[in-house]
Structure to design on (149 residues):
């Protein structure tokens, strides 16, 4: 797997010969090690270990229903009242962050109505803060630490 633009962490990988899996600290189980999962695990550890996000308020693969179809948000941050606050969408490191990716996360947000949207391919990370009063958003220079949300 590629080195990412994210801090290193203690990676737990299993290799049964047929496939590799990586331990997901949020779901508390080993999951298939795909290029996107590689990014997710690095990013989740970054949120928890470097930015102070409470592990118990993060959830991976959250299902939302949109126009009669079922979609999955990669990672969602909840507040203590279990209201969604942030959606994070991951792409593999070799996938460019494009308008199509932002369109995807905006569709998820039509359901969850969060305060922050984050997109990362492990190399580039974008965060925007929603402004529902003005029906707009603003890109932030960095992903805020948990205590700054």
């Amino acid at each position: 797997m590629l080195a990412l633009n994210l801090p290193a962490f203690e990676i737990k990988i299993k290799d049964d010969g047929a496939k590799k899996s990586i331990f997901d600290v949020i779901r508390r189980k080993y999951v298939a090690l795909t290029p996107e999962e590689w990014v997710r695990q690095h990013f989740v550890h970054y949120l928890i270990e470097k930015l102070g996000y409470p592990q118990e308020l993060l959830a991976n693969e959250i299902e939302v229903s949109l126009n009669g179809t079922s979609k999955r948000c990669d990672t969602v941050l909840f507040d203590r009242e279990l209201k969604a606050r942030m959606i994070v969408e991951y792409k593999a490191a070799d996938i460019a962050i494009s308008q199509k990716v932002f369109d995807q996360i905006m569709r998820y947000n039509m359901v969850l109505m969060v305060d922050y949207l984050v997109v990362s391919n492990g190399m580039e990370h974008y965060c925007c803060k929603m402004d529902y009063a003005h029906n707009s958003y603003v890109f932030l220079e960095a992903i805020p630490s948990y205590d700054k949300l």
Summary: Residues 35-148 form a domain with the tt1808, chain A fold (CATH 3.90.1570.30). The longest helix spans residues 35-50.
